[in-house]
Design goal:
The chain is an alpha/beta fold and 204 residues long. The protein has helices at residues 4-7, 13-28, 31-38, 43-61, 100-113, 125-128, 131-142, 165-179, and strands at 67-70, 79-82, 88-95, 145-155, 185-193, 198-203. It has one domain (4-203). A 6-stranded mixed β-sheet has the order 1-2-3-4-5-6. The longest helix has 19 residues, at 43-61. The protein is globular, with a radius of gyration of 17 Å.
Length: 204
C-alpha cells in the first residue's frame, strides 16, 4: 500500500498531508497492513517516524507554493524543500524520540490481543517520562553538523482531554527550557508537538 517511490514523490505541503492521511485510512481498513504498520515493519517505520510528522510540519511552516520531497535513506536529511521557483530552500532532518523497547512491546500486544500495555498516569506524567529520551536524542543531534538543515524534534503522545491540556503545555515549557540549553549546529531548530499540531521555533 505504501512504496518508497510513491513516498518520495515531490508534492506541495498540502499534497503531502493529503497523501499521508489517505494512506493511513487505507492501511487501517486492511488487517494485515494495519498490523504491519503498528509493528513498524519495513517502510512503515519510516512512514510513521518521518513522513507523518514531516507532513504536519511542512503544512504548518511552508506556503503551498513550495514543494517537499521526502528522501528515504542515510543521507543526513529526511526531506528537501524547494521554493516557488524550484530552488532548494531548506533540508529537513527529523527526530522522533521515544522509548523504543516499551513501544515495541505495546505494539506486539496490540497485534496479539487488540490493545496495548495498560498505562495509568496523572495528566502530563506520560510526557514527563519521555524527557530523558527527548533530551538524549537532542544531545546526540547536537554532536552532528546540520548547518544546512532545519532540525525538527517531534513529540508524540496520547492526546490529553481538553481539561488537562494546561498540564501538558506546562510540561512542554519546561522541556523547551532544557532544549534551549543545548547548542545545535543547525540552520533552525523546531519542536513539533504532534497531538496539538503545533510547531514551536526553538532558535534560528
Amino acid at each position: 500500500m505504501i512504496s518508497k517511490d510513491e513516498t518520495e514523490k515531490t508534492r506541495s505541503p498540502r499534497g503531502l498531508r493529503q497523501f499521508v492521511t489517505r494512506r493511513v485510512e487505507k492501511v487501517r481498513r486492511v488487517t494485515k497492513q494495519r498490523h504491519e504498520a503498528v509493528l513498524k515493519k519495513g517502510i512503515y517505520k519510516v512512514f510513521s517516524d518521518e513522513i507523518i510528522p514531516l507532513s504536519i510540519f511542512c503544512l504548518k511552516i511552508y506556503p503551498n507554493t513550495y514543494t517537499v520531497q521526502p528522501v528515504i535513506g542515510n543521507q543526513g536529511y529526511d526531506a528537501i524543500v524547494r521554493d516557488d521557483k524550484g530552488n532548494i530552500f531548506d533540508h529537513i532532518e527529523l527526530t522522533l524520540p521515544h522509548d523504543g523497547f516499551s513501544a515495541a512491546r505495546s505494539a506486539r500486544l496490540v497485534v496479539e490481543r487488540g490493545y496495548g500495555k495498560i498505562d495509568i498516569y496523572s495528566p502530563g506524567k506520560n510526557l514527563n517520562r519521555m524527557f530523558s529520551f527527548i533530551l538524549k536524542a537532542c544531545h546526540n543531534k547536537s554532536k552532528k553538523d546540520y548547518s544546512n538543515c532545519s532540525l525538527v524534534v517531534c513529540l508524540n503522545f496520547s492526546p490529553p482531554f481538553p481539561e488537562h491540556k494546561k498540564e501538558y503545555l506546562n510540561s512542554i515549557k519546561k522541556l523547551l527550557k532544557e532544549i534551549k540549553c543545548i547548542s545545535f549546529r543547525a540552520r533552525k531548530v523546531y519542536l513539533l508537538v504532534m497531538p496539538f499540531n503545533n510547531v514551536i521555533n526553538i532558535f534560528g
